[in-house]
Amino acid sequence: MASVHESLYFNPMMTNGVVHANVFGIKDWVTPYKIAVLVLLNEMGRTGEGAVSLMERRRLNQLLLPLLQGPDITLSKLYKLIEESCPQLANSVQIRIKLMAEGELKDMEQFFDDLTDSFSGTEPEVHKTSVVGLFLRHMILAYSKLSFSQVFKLYTALQQYFQNGEKKTVEDADMELTNREEGERKMEKEELDVSIREEEVSCSGPLSQKQAEFFLSQQASLLKNDETKALTPASLQKELNNLLKFNPDFAEAHYLSYLNNLRVQDVFSSTHSLLHYFDRLILTGAESKSNGEEGYGRSLRYAALNLAALHCRFGHYQQAELALQEAIRIAQESNDHVCLQHCLSWLYVLGQKRSDSYVLLEHSVKKAVHFGLPYLASLGIQSLVQQRAFAGKTANKLMDALKDSDLLHWKHSLSELIDISIAQKTAIWRLYGRSTMALQQAQMLLSMNSLESVNAGVQQNNTESFAVALCHLAELHAEQGCFAAASEVLKHLKERFPPNSQHAQLWMLCDQKIQFDRAMNDGKYHLADSLVTGITALNSIEGVYRKAIVLQAQNQMSEAHKLLQKLLIHCQKIRNTEMVISVLLSVAELYWRSSSPTIALPVLLQALALSKEYRLQYLASETVLNLAFAQLWRQPSRISMKPRTILQRSTAKSKSEMLFTSRPDSTTHWGRPRRGTGVRCSSGSCIRSCLLTGCP
Amino acid sequence: MAASPSVVPVAVTAAVIPVLSPSSDFSNLREIKKQLLLIAGLTRERGLLHSSKWSAELAFSLPALPLAELQPPPPITEEDAQDMDAYTLAKAYFDVKEYDRAAHFLHGCNSKKAYFLYMYSRYLSGEKKKDDETVDSLGPLEKGQVKNEALRELRVELSKKHQARELDGFGLYLYGVVLRKLDLVKEAIDVFVEATHVLPLHWGAWLELCNLITDKEMLKFLSLPDTWMKEFFLAHIYTELQLIEEALQKYQNLIDVGFSKSSYIVSQIAVAYHNIRDIDKALSIFNELRKQDPYRIENMDTFSNLLYVRSMKSELSYLAHNLCEIDKYRVETCCVIGNYYSLRSQHEKAALYFQRALKLNPRYLGAWTLMGHEYMEMKNTSAAIQAYRHAIEVNKRDYRAWYGLGQTYEILKMPFYCLYYYRRAHQLRPNDSRMLVALGECYEKLNQLVEAKKCYWRAYAVGDVEKMALVKLAKLHEQLTESEQAAQCYIKYIQDIYSCGEIVEHLEESTAFRYLAQYYFKCKLWDEASTCAQKCCAFNDTREEGKALLRQILQLRNQGETPSTEMPAPFFLPASLSANNTPTRRVSPLNLSSVTP
C-alpha cells in the first residue's frame, strides 16, 4: 500500500462527498445480448427491401422495441423471437454470431468498426435520432469507452453467451423432436406474456440502468393500474433486492419496494424503504445543477408529506398529522405553494376522519385553482360534493358542480378523476334512492373502461372507483332480488381485487351485507348473527346496527332497544343522517312490535322529516310505509282507508307507491338493503301482508 | 455437514503433534508458552500472518523459557521431505505475492503443509484479482457482481477432502473462509467450530467465528472445545457483542493468571472501556499501551476518538504526527489525522482524510460515520446523509450512523421525521441515555409531552451521561404545572451533581435552585426556601431574585410565628437525604407509541 501515490486519492467519482455511481453518464453498456441485437439490426439494414416481405418487416419492427428496452435474454430465446417474425433473418443472424464467437477478437472489433457505416452515405439506413439510431450510437460510444482488458472480457463473455445458447438449442431440439406440440404451445404462451417476462427477469444477470428504469416504471404503472398483472409481491421484492445489490444508489428501486410493501401491508418495511428512498433522493436532488439547494429542500418537504400519507394509509392518524404539520412548516418556510396545496388536501383528508371541515376544503379548492393544479382542484370539488351530498344539498347543484369538474378532467385528460367522478355520481344517485340512475352510471363507468383500453392502451383496472362501482352494482342487483347476478359481480370483484389488496375491504363488506340480508329474508337468524362479527370488523357502526336488527328479529327487544338508542346518539353526534333515519325506523318498528304503535308515530314522523330534509327519497318512502303500517296497527277498524291515503299523499313518487299499486306481490322489495348503510326492514313481509289485506 | 463438530476425533490429530492439545486451565504457563511458540511457527510457515502475529505477541508477554525447555521443531515426515523443494520455492513466491506462480509449483504436492499453501495461494490470487477487477468492470451496475472466481472451485475440492476427513485444522479453516465468502454462513460456522476442535491454537479460526456470530443466543448453542484459547475467544466476542461487563471480567481473569504484559489484552480492555464510555480509564490504559508498544497502529483510531471527546488537542496532534511517521497509509492513521483536523475545526481536510481511509478500506465502518459527522459540521446535510447511509449499508447495527441521521434531520427541523432514526438507534442501544434524550427532545418539539416525559425518565433511569435528562424532565413538569414532580426532579438533579462531586459548572444548577426556592416559598416551608434562595445568590443570573426572595421570607417569617432557631442540614446534600429521597419509582419498560416502527 505504501507505494500508492498521494494523487491517487483524488477520486473523480467523489465530489463534495457524494459518490457518483455513473461518472460518464453512460446509462447503458455493451453486453453479449446487446451485440446479438446489434447483429440483428445490422442484418435488417443489410437485407434490402425485396428480401424481407412487408409483413415480416412489420413484425420485426414491432419486436425491436421490447428487445431494446427489455432485460437481457438468452440467445436461444432471442433466436426464437426472431424466427417467429422472420425465419430467414434468424438464420443469418445465427450464422453471423456463430462466426463472431468462434472467430477471433478482431471479428468483434471489425463488427463495431462497421457499425458506424450505417449512419454514413447520402441516404443512411438508420436515422441518427431515431430510436434505433440512438441505441446504435449508445452502443458504439459504450464500446469505444471500454479499456483494453474490458474488451477482452466482453469477448469472452460473448463466447460464453454463444456456447450457452448453443447448448440450449440442442436441448430444445431434442425436446421438440419428442414433444413438438407441447413446445409450440409453450411458444405461444411465451408470446402472450412477452411484456412481463417474469422468468426471464429472474434468471438474467444485472440490468443496465436503462433496463432497470424500464423495469421499474413498468412495474410501478402496473401496480397503480392493474395490480394482478404485476409481479407477485415476493418475486418483485426479490427482483428489487437483486437490483439494489448491483446498484445500491438506485433510489427509485427503494420507492418501488415501498409501494410493494404497501401491497402486503407491511408497515415496518414500507417505512424503511420510503425513508431510504428519500435519503437517497436528497442526494440526487442536491446533485442536479439546475435547481441546486432548491431541489434538495423540495425533496425534504415531499419526504415528510409522503410519510404522512404512509401513516394515513395505515390508519395512524395522529402520526400522520404530526408528519403533515412538519411538511407544512417546511413548505411554508420555503414558500412552496404547490407543496402547501398538497398538504392542504391531505389536511382535509385527515380532518375528514374526525369532523367535517368544508371551510378548509373550499379554501383548498380556491387555492388550487389559483396555482393551476387541476388535479387537486377537482379532487377538492369531488370531496366537497360528497360532503354536500351528506349535508342534504339538492341534486341539481351537486351534479352541476360535478359537471364543472368533469370539464376540467376532460380538458386535462385526468382519466383517474373521471372514473372517480362517475363512481361518485353512482353513489349520489343511490343515496337519493334512484336505482335506475345509479345503475346507469355504474354501467357507464364499467363500459367506459373497455373503450379506453382500446384507445390508449391504458388500463385502469384496480382503482378504487371501479371497486366502488362494482360494489354498488352488486348491491343494486341484490336489492332487486337478483342474488345470482350479485354473486356473479362479487366473484368478479374477488378476482380483480385479491383479498390482501388495498380495496378488498370494500367488496368484503358488500359481500357480507348481501349475505346478511339474504339470511334475514330467509329467516335464518343464526346465520345472520354469525355474519355480524365480520361486518363489525369492517365497519363498526354498520355492525352494531345489524346486531340490533338480529336481536330484534329474535325477539330480544330490550337488548335491541338499548343498542339502537346508543347507536342513535352516536350517529347523531357524527351526523350520519342516513344511519340515524334507519335507526329511527328500526326503533319505530320495535315499538309497534311491542304493541305500542302510538309511541312509534312521533319517531316515524321525525324520520320522515329528516329524510325529506336530506332528500333521501328511498328512506322517505320506507318511512311512509312504516307510518302507514303504524296507523294500520293503531286503528285496525279503519284499515282500508288511512294507510292508503297516507301513501297517496306522500309527495315522494317513490317506488313504494308503485309497489303498492302495481306489484304487490314482490316480496324481495321489502326486505332489501338501502344504499350505503343498507338498512333492512325485517318485518317487511308482515307489513306487506297487512297492506294486502287492507287493499281494496 | 459430514461430521458434527462434537464427534471430531481430536485425539487423532493430537497424536501427531502432542503439544497441540491444550489444557483447559492456565495452571501451566510454560506449557502454554510452548504451544504459542509452536503455533506461531506453524502459521508462519503457512502464510497465515495475522494469526502468527497474534500468537507471537501473546507468547512474548509470557516469561522466556530456559534452553532445556525449548521445543524442538516438529519432526519432518516423509511427505514433507518429498515436497520440500517445491514448498520452499512456492513459499518464496508466496511471500512476494506471486500467488499464481506459487500455486503452479505446488500443484500435485501431497503433504498437508504444501497442500494448504497451494489452496491458500489460489484463494488469495482470486481475491487479488477480484480487487483489481472492481476497478475495471464492464459497467457501474456490475460492480456488485465481481466475485472471486476461484471460490467455487476451491469449495468443491475442499468439500471433497472434508468429506473424506483429509483436512487438518488449517485446511478446515480455509474451507470455512471459502464458505463464508460464498455467504454460506451456517455451513461456515459449522466448519469453523470443527476447525477449533481440531486445532484450538489457531487464533484465525476463532476470529472468523467471532465475525459470524451475531448474538448471545447463537453463542450459547455452539459446542466449543474446552481449552484456554476459549477464554480469549469469549472475551473477544463479548466485546464484539457489547457485553462489556462480561468481557472485562474475562480479561481481568486473563491478566490475573499471568498475561498482564500482553498488549493485545491491554488494548482490548481499553476498547471495552471506550465502549462503555469510561473515558478516563480508557485513556490511561491507552497511554500505558503506547509506552509499552510505541509503534503500534492498531486501535489507535479508538484512542484518537477518546482524545477527541476530551478535546486534548496537543496529545492528539502528537499521536497523529507520530502515526504518520510510522505509516501514513494505514486506515487508522488516516482516521487519527481526520480526528485531529476535526478537532481543529478544519472539517474539509478532516473529510478528505476520512475519504482516504475509505479508499484504503471501503468496509472500514467508522470512517463513514465520522465523515458524516464532518459533513454535518460543514452544514452539508445531503452529503452527511449519504455518508451515514453508507455506514448503515456496511453495518446495519451501527447505532452512531442512525443517530447521526436523526441529528441531521433534527437540524433540518424535521422532528417527526427524525423520530424514526432515533428509534432505530435506541433499539440498538436500549440503555444509552443519549438516544433517549434525543427522542425526548423530539417528542417535546412535537408537543407529545407524555412520551417526552417517559423518555427523559427512562434516560435518567438508565444512567444519564450528560446529566440533562432530569432538568429537561423537571422543566416539562414545570410546563404542565406539576410542581410537585418538578421539585422532585430538581432535587434529584442537585443530589446527582453533588454526589458526583464534579467541580464542572452546571448551567442549570441555578435554575434548579431558583425553582426550588420558589416552590418551597409557595409551600410555606421557610427554612428550605431560604436555604435555596441563599444558594441562588451564589449564581450570577439568579442573585437578585435570590436576594428578593430572602427578603420576602424574612418579612413573612416576622409576621408569622417565630422561626425555629436551629437550622437543619441542607436537605439537598446527598448525605442527609440519600436515605429517604432516592428515586423509588422502578424503571418501567419504555412504551412509546408503538404503532409506528
Shape of chain A: elongated
Find the CATH topology of the domain at 396-505 in chain B: Serine Threonine Protein Phosphatase 5, Tetratricopeptide repeat
CATH superfamily assignment of the domain at 396-505 in chain B? Tetratricopeptide repeat domain
Q: CATH architecture of the domain at 396-505 in chain B, please?
A: Alpha Horseshoe
Let me know the average pLDDT of chain B.
81
Sheet of most strands of chain A: 2 strands, antiparallel
**What is the CA-CA span between the terminal residues of chain A?**
109 Å
Seen as an oligomer or otherwise, the chain set is heterodimer
Protein name (chain A): Anaphase-promoting complex subunit 5
Family (chain A): Belongs to the APC5 family.
Pathway (chain A): Protein modification; protein ubiquitination
Keywords (chain A): Cell cycle, Cell division, Cytoplasm, Cytoskeleton, Mitosis, Nucleus, Phosphoprotein, Repeat, TPR repeat, Ubl conjugation pathway
